[in-house]
Design a protein that fits this description.
The protein has 204 residues and is α+β, with helices and mostly antiparallel strands. The chain is 21% helix and 29% strand. The strands form 2 sheets. Strands 1-3-4-6-7-8-5 form a 7-stranded mixed beta sheet, with helices on one face. The longest helix has 17 residues. The chain is globular, with a radius of gyration of 17 Å.
Amino acid sequence: MVDRLAAAGSDGAAGRRPAGAVPGPGIAPFEIAPHHCFACGTLNANGLRMLIHVEAGRAWSEGALDRRFEGWEGIAHGGILCTILDEVMAWALVGAENWGLTARLAVDFRRPVEVGRAFRADGWITRSRRRLVDTAGRIVDVETGTELATAEGIYVAASRQRRDELRARYGFRYTGLSAAAQPETPEMVAGAARSREPRGQDGS
């Protein structure tokens, strides 16, 4: 998969691409270490190498699939589209400081996704209930806005201990904050993001 935004800013230097995910509006700046995830890992030469843009309770990615991920000639394989939708919905949980694992994934394929044609995948949280988080997602054609696939998912949120273990394993941390100040809840994540926003001369 070729990320449109990363490719547009690339100068050919292999080390300059962000590692898997970047923070967006409503999220405190963070970093994550390079890893081997098939979907977003930059170390997996055979993977999708998606660049995920994480926002508060949602995530998205833009790109185009090459022929390695082809099913029928000229058309992206449906399993790959499921992977993409699962990935943006799972990262939506990270945008709410609520890491989790996929429990259920249902996908409707509405139109073929052409190989080499730019698309955008979005995932967002629709409901959180204790340790279960409901999500929705979709893939659209970037040029026409046509809806190509939609999805619904259910994720089992990790316990605080497990979440901290995953953070450590993948080198995830909010930058510019001490270990003691790392956000623990969605409200703290939003507060950390607001605290880093530029303010006017009157402090507003």
